[in-house]
């Protein structure tokens, strides 16, 4: 794995159940997360994890891959988590394989929604360009989600190109999100806060 991963967090002023619903449902997930165009559940493991296939469409190429995820909704500490592994054999993908997590922490101000992930680069040395862009895209998507849940504005109202509408103060902005753990830096281990369920997930690309 690359030494510098990606960490993003925001606070969404909404009930935990609402944030969980729009992030765990694959149909709702792709509405706000610019990193994916389609996610389809395909199977369930004996341990209760969900296998899925994902697609990312661009004007020039469509990337397809597979993944596996598992959620925790009844932790003693009141948090919820979702762990994930994903991979693709597409040689044009900037990501070969990766793993990460989401953590949902109820607070007095809303739900602190956190992600940390890392991946094996697909473009070699060009990852020095790709990685910051993926971090930005993740943060932009998180703010897009926040606006949807808090203000009721559908994510489709804010396509990716709306990031260029600098005069629109109400547009999604990556800068509203924290990009490093509290008290840490962007070079901190992005999986330091990962749930134990992440280590137990199988390799989604095994046997492909």
Total number of strands:
7
Mean pLDDT: 94
Uncertain regions spanning at least 5 consecutive residues: none
How many whole angstroms does the radius of gyration measure?
A: 16 Å
What quaternary form is this? single chain
Instruction: Give the distance, in angstroms, between the N- and C-terminal Cα atoms.
Output: 20 Å
Q: Output the helix-strand order.
A: EHHEEEEEEHH
Number of helices: 4
Q: Structural class per helix/strand content?
A: alpha+beta
Q: Which descriptor suits the 3D outline?
A: globular
Strand content: 25-35%
For the report, how would you describe the main beta sheet? 7 strands, antiparallel
Strand order of the largest sheet: 1-7-6-5-4-3-2
Percent in helix: 10-25%
Give a quick rundown of the structure.
The protein is an alpha+beta fold and 208 residues long. It contains four helices and seven strands, in the order βααββββββαα. The radius of gyration is 16 Å and the shape is globular.
Structure explained in plain terms:
A seven-stranded antiparallel sheet has the order 1-7-6-5-4-3-2, with helices on one face. The protein is globular. The chain contains four helices and seven strands, in the order βααββββββαα. By secondary structure, it is of the alpha+beta class. It has helices at residues 16-24, 26-32, 127-151, 197-200, and strands at 6-12, 38-44, 50-57, 62-72, 80-87, 95-107, 110-121.
């Amino acid at each position: 794995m690359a030494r510098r991963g990606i960490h993003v967090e925001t606070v969404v002023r909404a009930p935990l159940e609402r944030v969980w619903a729009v992030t765990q449902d694959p149909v709702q997930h792709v509405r706000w997360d610019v990193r994916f165009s389609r996610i389809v559940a395909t199977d369930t493991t004996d341990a209760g994890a969900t296998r899925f296939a994902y697609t990312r469409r661009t004007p020039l190429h469509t990337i397809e891959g597979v993944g596996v995820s598992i959620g925790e909704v009844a932790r003693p500490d009141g948090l919820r988590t979702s762990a994930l592994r994903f991979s693709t054999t597409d040689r044009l993908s900037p990501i070969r394989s990766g793993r990460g997590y989401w953590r949902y922490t109820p607070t007095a101000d809303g739900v602190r929604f956190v992600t940390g992930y890392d991946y094996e680069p697909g473009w070699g040395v060009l990852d020095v360009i790709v990685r910051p862009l993926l971090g930005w895209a993740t943060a932009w998507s998180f703010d897009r989600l926040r606006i949807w849940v808090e203000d009721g504005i559908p994510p489709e109202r804010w396509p990716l190109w709306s990031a260029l509408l600098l005069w629109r103060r109400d547009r999604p902005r990556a800068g509203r999100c924290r990009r490093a753990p509290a008290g840490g830096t962007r070079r901190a281990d992005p999986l330091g806060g990962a749930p134990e369920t992440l280590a137990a997930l199988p390799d989604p690309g095994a046997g492909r």
